[in-house]
Amino acid sequence: MLQMKKLMLVSAVSLGVMTGSAAAEDDAGHPLAFMFGEWVGPASGTSQAGPFSLTQTERVGPMLDGGVVVIEGRGYDDDGNTVFNALGVVSPTAPEGGWEMRSYANGRSGTFPFEITDTGYVWSLPAGPGARMVYTATFDGDAWHQTGAYTPAEGPARQTFEMTLTRIGESDWPSANPVSPDVD
Predict the structure, then answer these.
(1) What predicted TM-score, i.e. pTM, was given to this entire model?
(2) Domain ranges in the chain?
(3) Which three-class secondary structure state does DSSP give residue 96?
(4) Which residues, other chains included, contact 147 with Cβ-Cβ below 8 Å and sequence gap of 6+?
(5) Other Cβ atoms closer than 10 A to 150
(6) CA–CA dist 14, 35 (Å, integer)
(7) How far is CA 48 from each of CA 13, 51, 134, rounded to the nearest angstrom?
(8) Which tens digit of pLDDT belongs to each residue from 149-163?
(9) How is domain 2-169 classified at the CATH fold level?
(10) Please, are residues 113 and 99 in contact by the beta-carbon 8 Å criterion?
């Protein structure tokens, strides 16, 4: 059943790419539409520098007629300074199924597996010999909860990040207000 759902989701994205503006007008049918909009809430965790807490914001929207989904995350300290900024581009990997995310953060980038689940998504990246960072997100209406766990090759996983966001509105980002071809 889950495999069939994934195949239907990838087919919907592929169809959206082929049908152009008709798909752009109806983002509600996009497999990641549950993420679209602007979000804000508390985040906390532990980094190599020690414990941290911040206000996290996310803005998520489709681009290229739904062929990709762009995600920008920003973390703000208590004084309103940006202390974290990341960009992700999620896209299908092939017509028959699969997803990936190209991520940019902290001067690093990479392409990583991205799995849509019944309640959100999971993505992971290498974190040392045999270890991974695994990010698991769940969505319930206007609530987005995400954890990050350091998962060593042996031994238990250790949570290092958590955020709980609330959708504060819709967004026409990133496809709104393109550069006009009029040079006058």
Answers:
(1) 0.82
(2) 2-169
(3) coil
(4) 135, 136, 159, 161, 162
(5) 17
(6) 19
(7) 38, 8, 17
(8) 999 999 999 999 999
(9) Lipocalin (2.40.128)
(10) yes
